[in-house]
Write a structure and sequence with these properties.
The protein is mainly α. It has a domain of 76 residues: Cytochrome Bc1 Complex, Chain D, domain 2 (Orthogonal Bundle). The protein has 7 helices and no strands. α3 crosses α7. The structure holds heme C. Heme C binds next to α4, α5 and α7.
Length: 109
């Protein structure tokens, strides 16, 4: 009985090691900050705002002509507004919010 349990244990470890450390996280950590911001934007924002910020899907504002301050953008990402859902949980960290913030400011003309 005891032996059987031990034989299963490595299988559990294998299972959990596959679950943690998703591909995306690994790829992102090897990029420069600008690339990280762009990747996060592509993953979480581009479906509504478009790669260039101009798509305007589901009423999303054109980010290339946005004049919001950093403070306002941060609030908007954290809390959402109208049809835009709060994005803080998806972005996970303040560092990631800052990276996306820098990226969308770079989309401005
Ligand atoms: C589900 C679609 C959707 C996603 C995903 C989305 N947004 Fe939005 N976004 C919107 C909509 C809709 C608005 C307009 C909100 C309003 O003013 O009513 C908006 C507005 C904004 C604005 C305000 C622009 C302005 O000048 O008023 C910013 C900045 C912004 N989004 C950034 C982001 C960022 C950064 C992400 C990714 C982390 C993101 N959005 C993801 C739909 C989305």
């Amino acid at each position: 009985m005891v032996l059987k349990r031990f034989q299963l244990f490595p299988l559990f470890l294998l299972f959990f090691s596959c679950q943690t450390g998703s591909e995306n996280t690994k790829e992102i950590s090897q990029q420069t900050p600008a690339e990280q911001g762009a990747s996060l934007y592509t993953m979480h924002c581009a479906q509504c705002h478009g790669e260039d910020g101009k798509l305007g899907s589901s009423g999303a504002k054109d980010l290339s002509i946005s004049k919001l301050s950093d403070q306002k953008i941060r609030q908007l990402i954290t809390n959402g507004k109208g049809a835009m859902p709060p994005m803080k949980a998806l972005l996970e960290t303040d560092t990631n919010i800052q990276l996306v913030l820098s990226h969308i400011k770079a989309l401005r003309k």
